[in-house]
Write a structure and sequence with these properties.
Length: 211
């Protein structure tokens, strides 16, 4: 894929702005759809007229599905915040960044499926492996986008400062991959480990504030 050079005349600047706007719009759309599809991972009880009184108990039986929904909503929301912050610091996009972003979005769009599997079979290590593998792949692609954007000079000075304040990109894939062996001991602990993704940025900001 060809690397784009610095912006030239007004027409080239306009084209680069158009490419950037389309990329961000597509990304936000995929995130919005993925967040919306999560609710479909919660199944609706099917009851005959004679057994409608069991609705409350049947809804309680779907507790694991509700928990997997909340967990994935939090994780996808976290991914969107990170993606939004990253692209806010981008001056322009090139072919490689576009390709990486498409792979990233494809994995984000896939995430409701492992969410459904965890909701139905959360006690099985295989469900955690599928979810953690997907989350780890998403985080790895995000790291590749970040590394490429820095090396290709796609970041604005403000964007570079923003990335410098963020934790290392390898933390997220490490957390997901570390949860895989833990799942064979406790799938609950493995799933809770994913929530540390939300805690890492908060701890980092707290440390900066105290300084």
């Amino acid at each position: 894929m060809d690397e784009q050079g610095p912006p030239g005349g007004p027409e080239e600047v306009e084209e680069l702005e158009f490419d950037y706007a389309r990329t961000v719009a597509l990304s936000d759309g995929v995130f919005a759809i993925a967040l919306t599809l999560l609710v479909l991972t919660i199944s609706v009880p099917t009851l005959s007229a004679a057994r409608e009184g069991e609705l409350g108990r049947r809804l309680l039986d779907r507790g694991p599905e509700f928990r997997s929904y909340v967990l994935s909503f939090a994780i996808i929301g976290y991914l969107w915040v990170r993606h939004h912050g990253f692209f806010r610091g981008i001056d322009r996009v090139d072919g490689w960044l576009t390709a990486f972003n498409l792979v990233y979005l494809g994995l984000v769009a896939f995430l409701p499926y492992p969410t459904r599997i965890v909701g139905l079979y959360g006690g099985q290590p295989a469900s955690v492996v599928l979810y953690a593998g997907t989350g780890g792949a998403i985080s790895l692609i995000a790291g590749l986008m970040r590394t490429h954007a820095l090396r290709a000079g796609l970041m604005s000075p403000a964007g570079r400062r923003h990335l410098a304040r963020r934790e290392h990109w390898a933390i997220a894939p490490t957390i997901f991959l570390a949860s895989i062996p833990i799942a064979y001991l406790s799938t609950t602990v493995a799933a809770l480990l994913w929530l540390t993704l939300l805690a890492v940025p908060l701890l980092r900001r707290t440390r900066r504030f105290r300084r």
